[in-house]
Amino acid sequence: IWSSDITCKPSSSTECFGWHQDEAYAWLGPHNKLLTAWIALTDSNSTNGCVRFIRGSNSLGQLPHRSQVKTPNENLVLGQIIADQQIVQRMEDNIVDCELQAGEASLHAWRTIHSSKPNSSDQDRVGLAVRYMA
Prior knowledge:
mainly beta, five-stranded mixed beta sheet, four-stranded antiparallel beta sheet, 11 strands, globular
């Protein structure tokens, strides 16, 4: 295990994660030996801002990222997004909401493009991200 952190999105919050790759935040490699496990500590669904993946995006290679200013409606936690947002638009049909029940987990590759929307529900959303290197 390389790192881990807990993410809590309070109910009715604007906190969200823009489209990004985990690889942009750590210069570790090789990329095919790294993954992130996202463990739902509470139910995680589209209403409370579950993680969203772009299916097949891990095959696009490492993509440049750019800073993005936080706004009241888009309170980006990491403050960065993929520089070429047209990639997201072109792959829109491959976006998957990863809805999980508390105790379930998802795994994604280091280069998978993912994000999450704000929590518009009346319940907090809590998850544990664990980054693993083989």
